[in-house]
Amino acid sequence: MAQIQVSNLTFGYEGSFDNIFENASFSIDTNWKLGFIGRNGKGKTTFLRLLLGDYEYQGSIRSSTAFDYFPYQVQAWDMQENAVDLLKKWKADSELWRVCCEMEELHLAAELLYRPFGTLSHGERTKLMLAVLFSGENDFLLIDEPTNHLDQDSRESVKEYLSRKKGFILVSHDRDLLDGCIDHVLVLNRCSIEVQSGNFSIWWENKSRKDAFSKMENEKHKREIEELRRASKRSRAWADKNEKTKIGFHPIKEHDRSISTRAYIGAKTKKMQSRVRQFERRMERKIEEKEGLLKDIEAPVDLKLTPIRHHKEVLISGRKYGIMYPQAQNAVFENLNFTLRQGERIFLHGRNGCGKSSLIRGILRHAMSEDVQCFETAKARALFLAQSCQNSPYFPVCEQKEWGVQEIGELRTAPGLMISYVNQDTSFLQGTIKNFCAQRNLDESLFCAILCQLDMERGQFVKNMEEYSEGQKKKVLIAASLLTPAHLYIWDEPLNYIDVFSRMQIEKLILEYQPTMLVVEHDVRFREKIATQVLQLDAQNDSAAENTTAIF
Question: Which long-range contacts (CB under 8 A, 24 or more apart) does 428-431 make?
């Protein structure tokens, strides 16, 4: 057991307006299971990189332990290598038998080591890297968002695995994962850093109580400051009035006054002015205290949405629907029966590769294959294309008359259906916010206002989107979707990399405006609060596929 001591840490990227860390000091124990929490762009990954020594900084980080980082870097040519050949590259002191032991804990077959890394699923790659990570000894492990793009089963497996380990920092926005496997939290607040024992729910409950107390104290300070202002104003008026009587006096009305009383009046005025200055200093102190109370309060602005009501009650329906790719022996899924009505929020659920994104592609294709008269205008159709699929990996698929896959059964979409789509991929985001808004016919000022409400700093708006963090890129796509009036919102893994506070903000928005949605998302807490139905996709279980809709 050792300590990591951080003293007066100051760091900022070259060309950045503000430092990410400013004289930060705290200590953590290498025996903890530490959850790392904070807003997107607050510096979580940056701090892990500082521990690894990747950047120069001011201050000191003292530790007697070595660090190892997840995920390991994988180059394009590594995808052709067998996984076993990458072990030494990732972790020089790794031993195959230790890796195999860790793989067994993760319910991962050892034969995966002898397959090309590129043929493994996202879940298999994540689990294999974690097995290598934990195969060493005496390292303090830095784990950066291990569950992005993982299905629910894989997330549960990773959660159970990490709950049996210790000696790591876990960066994650998944509340269920944090509750299941950490015993301390390191939190990057708005203006401070805190370390606290307990899991996410315990910290959030403590923070909520602390914020409520701070708000009560703030109201008390406001009343005190207002009383001080009134007293200061009265004293200032008295002092000014008295000062005017120093020179000149009425010989009849003030017959008992002589020129010698001028000094007395001056001294009295000086005393009153001193009292006014004391009042003002007390006000300044109270204002500083008030600002200190509220500096770390999370008070996200309520977001707005403009869903459109369609003239049809049923927007999408599928009857014994399935998809099969060319040269594949089995369908991705089949016998899918479902109906999406207005006001419903259906979550697609299933393991990675079960066809969730394929179903979304099919729906987008059917919606866009409607005759142009189904849209209000030709411009509306072009705008739909731009907002839904342009620059996305699915755009060429959507535009082709021949999709290149075999569709089984029947899939219907309502005519004139306007869809606002959030892609799970962000790699196509390039250029400035201004160009992004111009391409999609979005109001730039409103778009930037929504990004600010999602806690993106205005300094980010002058950067190219390639420089954004993954969480900030996701917020760009979500903001564009929120600004797009639509009958149906299709979101494909929208919360990957999105911070906890923004997730709660989006939950509140959806519950308030009740839009019609089709969502792929593996965050259990989000799904439990938002979903009206869960559509289970499982090509390997035909009996379950016959009755795929389950009400939560």
Answer: 428/391, 428/392, 428/393, 429/465, 429/466, 429/468, 429/473, 429/476, 429/477, 430/464, 430/465, 430/466, 431/464, 431/465
Q: Is the dihedral of CA 57, 61, 65, 69 positive or negative?
A: negative
Which of 338, 402, 380, 412 has the alpha carbon at shortest distance from 485? 380
Among residues 127, 104, 125, 105, the alpha carbon closest in space to that of 115 is found at 125
Over residues 65-115, the pLDDT tens digits come to 899 999 999 888 989 999 999 998 999 888 999 999 999 998 888 888 998
Task: Please give the C-alpha separations between residue 261 and each of 15, 17, 248, 266, 268, in angstroms, as whole numbers.
Answer: 64, 59, 11, 9, 11
Q: How far is CA 406 from the centre of its chain?
A: 37
CA dihedral 226, 232, 238, 239 (to 10 degrees): -160
Strand order in the sheet with 549-550: 419-422, 488-492, 517-520, 345-349, 533-536, 549-550
Largest CA-CA distance found in the chain, in angstroms, rounded: 116
In this predicted model, what pLDDT tens digit does every residue of 328-362 receive, in sequence order? 677 888 889 999 999 999 999 888 778 888 899 88
Are 10 and 18 a contacting pair, CB within 8 Å? no
Distance CA 189, CA 296 (A): 6
CA distance 541 to 537: 9
d(CA 136, CA 176): 27
pLDDT in tens, 208-266: 888 888 778 777 777 777 777 777 777 777 777 766 666 655 565 665 666 666 676 67
- What would you report as the CA-atom Rg of the chain, rounded to the nearest whole angstrom? 30
The amino acid at residue 484 is: T
State how far the Cα of 275 lies from the Cα of 286, in Å rounded to an integer: 17
How far apart CA 351 and CA 400 sit, in angstroms, is: 28
The pTM (predicted TM-score) of the whole model is 0.74
Give yes or no for a cis peptide into 300 (omega within 30° of 0). no
